[in-house]
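Go through the following before class.
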Amino acid sequence: MMLFTKLLLAHLIGDFLLQPLRWVIHKEANKITSKYLYLHVLLHAALMMLLLWDLSYWKIVVAITLSHYVLDLAKLYANPLFKRKTIPFFIDQVLHVAVLYACVYFENLYEHTLLLIDMINWPLVTAIVFVSYPTAIIMGVLLEGMSSKIELDHKSLPNAGKYIGIIERLFVLTFIILGRWEAIGLLITAKSVFRFNDLKESNNRKLTEYILIGTLLSFGFAIIAGILYMNFSS
């Protein structure tokens, strides 16, 4: 596990902390001919050797370095095929981590993967999934009749409300699992403070009621999911 952790740390440092934006722009513009592509890959190799500090791991370092080059190069040529750059970015990151995992546990990869699967807390996974998009969709259906009666005089970011709701429900679920119910009250207070100016400026009773109902539903679903999880896992 320590080997995987050190390799993951090297990846995080090399891909995020020590990769300037100008490197990224140059790589996207020049692709395979970009000097920063090769400098970036060599930097990863140096970071891995520095953190491992053991020459006996040189085969793993070489394998990861070569795979990093191939994956980064593939992402550079795949980027134009996607409208949203977040898709190839996350695919690339998942594949990088998968390579690290495969290189570390290559001798018993199948057995170790099965062990990890057996360790998954499925009730927790179900609770997390439920408070994300399923709850957002359920709330959309429940509030559909009300939302059509709300007149908004300001523009908002696309799907901002949905993502805010998902994040707040994940926080609530986490607080319940940790037994920190008082933190839920602080979260409600913080949200109320941020919403106060909008409601004050709009002076719209319907909007106020709509936001209040939506907030109570969002927190309510998360609390129910948290309580059910705690009961099933105990």
In short: Residues 2-116 form one domain. The chain has two domains: 2-116, 122-233. The two ends are 28 Å apart (CA to CA).
